[in-house]
């Protein structure tokens, strides 16, 4: 009989606070670095399947890389106040910096009071232009197809 060499004392690991990555501000991984548990893509899907949006939001923001939200949440818990809405995760800021390094101009839209604050007129004009071009090209293609089909019928007769 062989002895199982895996012991609970060696495997158990928990984290309340600890070190974070300097770039992404996410908790480090693994027991050796006193990191947090990995919450992967399939775990996210599982929580989505159970419609637990608030738990998922907390795990992906406050418990991960939302630095401002993490501090506000801690203060709210200590003071006994309601927890405020989480902010923008640091990973999103990293994505913005990567896009800007590619030369793309990214502008964020903040807190709109109503739909009147959004100026969609340029977008609507672009969509109308694209639609009209598509309709014209479809008309030309259908005319060409009908011409080629009549030519092939004439050749066959």
Describe the overall structure:
Helices cover 52% and strands 0% of the residues. It is elongated, with a radius of gyration of 28 Å. The mean pLDDT is 76.
Topology readout:
Elements: H1 8-11, H2 41-49, H3 53-60, H4 67-79, H5 90-101, H6 121-156
**Secondary structure category:** mainly alpha
Multimerization state: single chain
Structural shape: elongated
* Poorly predicted tracts of residues: none
Strand content: under 5%
What is the N-to-C succession of helices and strands?
HHHHHH
Number of extended strands? 0
Helix content: 40-55%
Mean pLDDT: 76
Biggest pleated sheet:
none
- Our measurement of the CA-to-CA distance between the termini, rounded to an integer number of angstroms, reads 88 Å
Number of helical runs? 6
Rg calculated over all Cα atoms: 28 Å
Task: Write a concise keyword list for the protein shown above.
6 helices, 0% strand, 157 residues, mainly alpha, elongated
Task: Summarize the entry for a quick read.
By secondary structure, the chain is an all-alpha fold. The chain contains six helices and no strands.
């Amino acid at each position: 009989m062989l002895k199982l060499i895996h012991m609970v004392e060696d495997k158990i690991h928990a984290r309340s606070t600890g070190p974070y990555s300097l770039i992404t501000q996410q908790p480090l991984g693994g027991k050796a670095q006193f990191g947090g548990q990995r919450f992967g893509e399939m775990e996210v899907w599982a929580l989505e399947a159970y419609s637990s949006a608030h738990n998922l939001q907390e795990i992906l923001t406050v418990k991960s890389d939302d630095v401002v939200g993490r501090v506000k949440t801690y203060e709210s818990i200590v003071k006994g106040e309601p927890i405020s809405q989480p902010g923008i995760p640091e990973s999103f800021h990293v994505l913005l910096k990567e896009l800007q390094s590619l030369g793309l101009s990214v502008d964020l839209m903040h807190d709109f009071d109503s739909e009147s604050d959004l100026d969609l007129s340029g977008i609507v004009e672009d969509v109308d232009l694209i639609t009209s071009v598509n309709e014209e090209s479809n008309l030309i293609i259908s005319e060409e197809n009908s011409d080629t089909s009549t030519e092939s019928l004439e050749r066959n007769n």
